[in-house]
């Protein structure tokens, strides 16, 4: 489904219910009211791409958080680095670390479709030299906001 681009930063007219409502007003005035506008448009079923807002978060729907643990040959094969790179590529946040038991564990947060993609990557791909025996996912929950600002390797 293609969502209308209601970016407040562009000069084009929106393609939602506010077609006749938009007027040329100073950028500072538009930015000051972005919170109210987002709330209003949400009630109309429209999505807004506000300046500085990550597009995947604005259009990705429900945010979730999932803990994971990966079993197999996953230490000493750059698994954490590849996990961080894949998470960042998908626009996700969270962390990854080695455990004393020889596994890799972490947490990933973001839009549900992107998290599902990451879960599949963790379960089936990993780093080129890794061998994944199994992946365990737990504590999945819907979240209202992200707890992290990026994807970190914890040492």
Automatic annotation (TrEMBL):
Which reaction is this enzyme known to catalyze? Answer: an acyl phosphate + H2O = a carboxylate + phosphate + H(+)
Top-tier EC class: hydrolase
Q: Does Hydrolase count among this protein's keywords?
A: yes
Alphabetical list of Pfam families matching this protein:
Acylphosphatase (PF00708)
Q: Cite the EC number.
A: 3.6.1.7
Q: Which residues form the Acylphosphatase-like domain?
A: 65-155
Keyword vocabulary terms for this entry: Hydrolase
Q: Name one GO molecular function term.
A: acylphosphatase activity
PANTHER family per UniProt: ACYLPHOSPHATASE (PTHR10029), ACYLPHOSPHATASE-1 (PTHR10029:SF21)
Per its record, how is this protein called by name?
Acylphosphatase
Q: Which organism is it from?
A: Equus asinus (Donkey)
């Amino acid at each position: 489904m293609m969502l209308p681009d209601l970016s407040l930063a562009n000069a084009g007219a929106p393609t939602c219910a506010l077609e006749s409502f938009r007027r040329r007003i100073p950028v500072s005035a538009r930015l000051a009211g972005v919170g109210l506008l987002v709330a209003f448009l949400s009630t109309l079923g429209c999505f807004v791409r506000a300046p500085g807002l990550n597009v995947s978060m604005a259009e990705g729907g429900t945010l979730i958080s999932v803990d994971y643990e990966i079993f197999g040959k996953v230490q000493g094969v750059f698994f954490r680095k590849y996990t961080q790179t894949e998470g960042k590529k998908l626009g996700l946040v969270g962390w990854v670390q080695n455990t004393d038991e020889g596994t890799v564990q972490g947490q990933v947060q973001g839009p549900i479709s992107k998290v599902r993609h990451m879960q599949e990557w963790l379960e089936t791909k990993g780093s080129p030299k890794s061998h994944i025996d199994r992946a365990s996912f737990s504590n999945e929950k819907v979240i209202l906001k992200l707890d992290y600002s990026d994807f970190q390797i914890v040492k």
